Amino acid sequence: MEKIIEEDKQGESLVLEQNPTNTKKLFIESYGCQMNFSDSEVVASILAGQGYNTTNLLEEADLVLVNTCSIRDKAEQTVRKRLEKYNAVKKINPGMKVGVLGCMAERLKSKFLEEEKIVDLVVGPDAYKDLPNLLAEVEEGRDAINVILSKEETYGDISPVRLNSNGVTAFVSITRGCDNMCTFCVVPFTRGRERSREPQSILEEITDLYDRGFKEITLLGQNVDSYLWYGGGLKKDYDKASDMQKATAVDFAQLLDMCARMFPKMRFRFSTSNPQDMHEEVLHVIAKHHNVCNYIHLPVQSGSTRILKEMNRQHTREEYMSLIDKIRAIIPDCAISQDMITGFPTETEEDHQDTLSLMKYVNYDYGFMFAYSERPGTLAARKLEDDVPEQVKKRRLQEVVDLQRDLSHNCTNKFIGQVVEVLIEKESHRSDAHWSGRNSQNTVAVFPKENYKPGDFVLVRINSCTSATLIGEAIGYSEKMQ
Ligand code: SAH
Ligand code: F3S
User: Which residues bind [4Fe-4S] cluster 2 (predicted)?
Assistant: First the structure.
């Protein structure tokens, strides 16, 4: 699997078990971040209660929903193209209704209904519980819209159906929204203020997954290290909480520790960490528990302190480097990955060199790298001219991607000769005689199947590798995870 990506994932349509009493057909596809894929599972669950079974045949759908991403212009263009496709299908199936969910719905609001005649329904990320009412309006022939952002909604009371699942790994959302206001980012506008989900409902969802045989959970949030439950409400209102609420508050380190202790035979990951909010306690929790993976996705965006300041990232290059030193000291074999933006307004060649040198310093295992895309309404769009020419952004991106490929190869190489613990997820897409899974550091490993099966934790001796995949042979079950 190639971890180095330059643009957004393709949409994926999702199908779940069919309920025989449901007669209507829902085609739902998702673009963008993991949170969108996870939200689509919440939406499918809500609509399963409204008589909808999912289908992966667009042509037979009564209702088509597209869960959209606004993070870069290209992501929005991809969705516009999909709407053209739906339009063509609607000519054959005129009864079909079309709804737009997610960040583009929130960003464009009723403009969507004006600009795209095909769209009947526009629903923002906090309004999915209103879908039954909105659909009733659509059925009566009216367009329907709800893009109200919430201070409370975490969908903690909805048990998401698992769409297109491998039955082994699952995502569980723990926070929604983001308060960081990075100047380039549209997320705080489309997903609202940050709020945390009640620990009890998180643990219940994991219990349910455990009972159904799942083995690995990724705790999801825009900024997981900022998780704070004090009885509900916005993170920014914590100061107003009572002494009692503060005394019983649960932070991310505590939540992760609780998960690891309650489910010792399940493995835990989390995403995404923000450098300024990552505290040392979390590192100790990772180091303490075998079942918390040694992998941190720690986006930095730029290696230049001046650019970081323009981006309103709340740390300098040096502070980020000392956080890396701390991670290396507390968790010696921790994998670290990055998100990087090239060509942010005012970025000079020297700033770009700072990015390359920081990458070498950290020796990142993986990376997700993007050319800057101005997003309407963000502070950067309002205050800074998008002044780095497109070909310069692209050239710098290529340099960053090329360097990351070399770093990744070195990181993968160092596993040769080692024995690593791999959770088997599925058949290797290159060979039906091999299993594919990931080690603690999130590196994909493939090995001959023998008598093992998906969901097994297996010790694998690594014999060779490509730049992103380890190749080896199983030497037995991992006793620690049996
Ligand atoms: N904290 C979030 C970040 C979401 S956006 C998380 O959970 O991952 C994911 C990445 O997209 C960011 O880290 C950033 O590298 C990139 N990105 C965001 N806005 C962008 C923009 N305007 N142009 C280019 N890349 C952007
Ligand atoms: Fe976006 Fe920064 Fe939050 S990248 S999601 S505003 S941490």
Answer: 178, 182, 185
Is 185 annotated as belonging to a binding site? yes
Q: Please give the distance, rounded to the nearest whole angstrom, from the Cα atom of residue 158 to the centre of ligand 2.
A: 26
Cβ of 185 closer than 6 Å to ligand 1, yes or no, is: yes
Domains of the chain are 2-146 (3.40.50.2300), 169-413 (3.80.30.20), 419-481 (2.40.50.140)
Q: Is 190 in the pocket of ligand 2 (CB under 6 A)?
A: no
Give 149-176 pLDDT, tens digit per residue. 999 999 999 989 888 889 999 999 999 9
CB of 56 closer than 8 Å to CB of 15: yes
Closest C-alpha among 138, 155, 124 to residue 46: 155
Q: Check: CB of residue 264 under 8 Å from CB of residue 291.
A: yes
Which residue's alpha carbon is at the smallest distance from atom 14 of ligand 1?
A: 339
Centre of ligand 2 from the C-alpha of residue 188, in Å? 7
Minimum mean pLDDT range among 6-15, 17-26, 32-41, 128-137: 6-15
Rounded Cα distance, 146 and 130, in Å: 8
Distance from residue 379's CA to the centre of ligand 1 (Å): 14
pTM: 0.94
Say how far residue 462 (Cα) sits from the centre of its chain. Answer: 28
Q: Per-residue pLDDT tens for 442-466? A: 999 999 999 999 999 999 999 999 9
How far from chain centre, in Å, is Cα 311?
Answer: 21
Ligand 2 neighbour 223 (Cβ under 6 A): yes
Tokens representing 49?
């209660």
Buried b (16+ CB within 10 A) or exposed e, 315-344: bebeebbebbeebeeebeebbbbbebbbbb
Which region among 5-19, 246-260, 317-331, 332-346 has the lowest average model confidence (pLDDT)?
Answer: 5-19
Ligand number with the minimum distance to the CA of 191: 2
Mutate to test the pocket of ligand 2, among 33, 70, 193, 223 (most ligand atoms within 8 A of CB): 223
Which ligand 1 atom is nearest residue 185's CA? 19
Q: 109 alpha carbon to ligand 2 midpoint, in Å?
A: 21
Q: Can you tell me the distance from the alpha carbon of 207 to that of 210, in angstroms, rounded to the nearest whole number?
A: 5
The CA 313 to ligand 2 mean position distance, Å, reads 9
- Using DSSP's 3-state secondary structure scheme, residue 437 falls into strand
| Ligand 2 contact via 178 beta carbon (within 6 Å) | yes
Is there a binding annotation on residue 178? yes
Annotated binding residue 103: yes
Tell me the C-alpha distance between 282 and 287, whole Å. Answer: 9
Q: Which of 388, 430, 447, 411 is nearest to 337 (CA)?
A: 411
Could you tell me the CA-to-CA distances from 86 to 28, 40, 52, 81, 452 in Å, in that order?
12, 18, 19, 9, 42
